[in-house]
Amino acid sequence: MTANVEFEAVDTNSEIGLLSVPRHVAIIMDGNGRWALRRGLPRTEGHRRGVKTLREAVEHAQKRGVSYLTLFSFSSENWARPQQEVSFLLALLRRFVCDDIKDLIRNNVKVRVIGSRENLDKSMLTLLDDAERETAHCTGLVLVIAFNYGARDEFVRAARQLAERVEAGELRAAEIGEDDVSTCLDTRDIPDPDLIVRTGGEQRLSNFLLWQAAYAEFYFAPTPWPEFGPDAFDDALLAFSNRERRYGGVSSDAAGT
User: Fold this and answer.
1) CA contacts within 13 A on the Cβ side of 34
2) How many other C-beta atoms can be found within 10 angstroms of the C-beta atom of residue 18?
3) Which residue among 131, 155, 225, 245 is least crowded, i.e. fewest CB within 10 A of its CB?
4) Lowest mean pLDDT among 79-93, 170-184, 199-213
5) Is 30 annotated as catalytic?
6) DSSP for 161-222?
7) pLDDT in tens, 57-70
């Protein structure tokens, strides 16, 4: 069992020069395996160390005033990895939820899980449902865990829902708009991410939040996830703070010329 962790939101953003804090940060936690292999360790050791970083990220996000933190914990494509690694990853997720749920509740963190729940075994479904149910009353940081998640799969499931509504006469195909699509996504009650961070040096989304990322800012960190501590997190927040978000418009400087 882990030791109890106590933390609260503290206004220390002036210390690092933040002009604005993203409401929603989403992170692709990459580089665990490479971090371990460079040290002559099994890949599973990188995943184990990554759980520690995950806990630190949740604490730091709340400290900085982030409202939503989405973590890409297990993709729908990860099932293709070696069975031993898959089993280890699932065991780590189970351990994180079981060991940390009381701390999350104590720190007012609400858990949301996105991703397909089809074909998951009963014990995993129960684990995910219990995590959401037991933290449903929390009003602080919303920790969104993307498990068995893939954006294309999410689109397919959304398309099926829309098709069923059309077949039932509830909706005309010609009337389908962006809002209709958004309400069929796993993130229907979650704001789109303002900042998407990928650790480990790769620069791609890997089928993560493709619809929701339309106007997100991206930050690609060379740091592998096991080393992505509070200082590295602050670097990402500072980079976001110094950007101008235009949502398809022009910059304020250009508008004034």
Assistant:
1) 12
2) 18
3) 245
4) 79-93
5) yes
6) HHHHHHHTTSS-GGG--HHHHHTTSTTTTSPPPSEEEE-SS--S-SSSSTTTTTT-EEEE-S
7) 999 999 999 999 99
Contacts of residue 135, Cβ cutoff 8 Å, sequence gap at least 6: 101, 104, 105, 109, 110, 111
Contact indicator for 221, 199 with CB cutoff of 8 Å: yes
Q: Are 10 and 61 in contact (CB under 8 A)?
A: no
Count the residues in the chain: 257
Pairwise CA distance, residues 237 & 60, whole Å: 11
Can you spell out the DSSP letters for 141-162? -EEEEEEEE-HHHHHHHHHHHH
* Catalytic residue status for 108: no
- pLDDT exceeds cutoff 70 at 227: yes
Name every residue whose Cβ is closer than 8 Å to that of residue 219 and which is 6 or more positions away in sequence. Answer: 195, 196, 197, 198, 236, 239, 240
Catalytic residue of the set 4, 11, 13, 30: 30
Strand order of the β-sheet with 217-220 is 110-114, 142-149, 68-75, 24-28, 195-198, 217-220
Would you place residue 15 in the very low, low, confident or very high pLDDT band (cuts 50, 70, 90)?
low
Residue type at 198 in one-letter notation? R
> pTM of the full predicted structure?
0.89
Amino acid 14 reads S
Quick one: CA dihedral 62, 130, 148, 88, positive or negative? positive
> What's the pLDDT tens digit per position in 127-153?
999 999 999 999 999 999 999 999 999
- Is pLDDT at 249 greater than 70 in this prediction? no
Rounded to an integer, the average pLDDT of 72-89 is 87
- The single residue of 4, 11, 13, 78 carrying the catalytic annotation is 78
